Amino acid sequence: MAEIKSELQNIVLSVTYKDVEFDLEELARLLEGARYDPEVFPGIAYKSQEPRASFLIFASGKMNCVGAKSMEDAKLAIKNLTEVLRKSGIEIKEEPKVKVQNMVASFDFEREFDLERIAREFKTTEYEPEVFPGLVFRLDEPNVVVLLFVSGKGVCAGARSEEEIKKAGKKISELLPPPPVA
């Protein structure tokens, strides 16, 4: 069976700097384009340009990195921001602990799906076309959700590695073989 085409769309990572606290007022002045309004949100919103990623930075020394389309880009964006923080005088002794929280990828199964039939045959699905045009297919192994559309396209959410994304595409293909050609 051919491997299903997938493309990473977004990675969400948690980033923790050990024994570091950020002065958000000061940091907001240092980071060009940073937005900080503590009455609206308790952290700084910051976007890096090269590579593109967005950060939510908290006083606790923790941050979230979202929007990168590859692990390489995400790690480079975190590394670059860490260097900016160090150069600004923040004492960072160790490299931050980085953990993948969620990966989102798109699939192309290169065929159409009968979503009504799939919803009847599989208990781990939800399909309400009046509310949302996609079928929600929950997988146990890997523990992800795959949204399927009539067009044969899909979206995988909840993965923590590219390996899980590949497994999810393969599993959907095995569970939903294409109809025989007449």
TrEMBL record:
Sequence repeats: 100-176
Keyword Membrane among record annotations: no
Keywords: DNA-binding, Repeat, Transcription, Transcription regulation
Pfam families: TBP (PF00352)
A GO BP entry: DNA-templated transcription initiation
InterPro entries per record: TBP (IPR000814), TBP_dom_sf (IPR012295)
MF terms (GO), sorted A to Z: DNA binding; DNA-binding transcription factor activity
Family: Belongs to the TBP family.
Role this protein plays: General factor that plays a role in the activation of archaeal genes transcribed by RNA polymerase. Binds specifically to the TATA box promoter element which lies close to the position of transcription initiation.
The name this protein goes by in its record: TATA-box-binding protein
Organism: candidate division MSBL1 archaeon SCGC-AAA261D19
Name of the gene: tbp
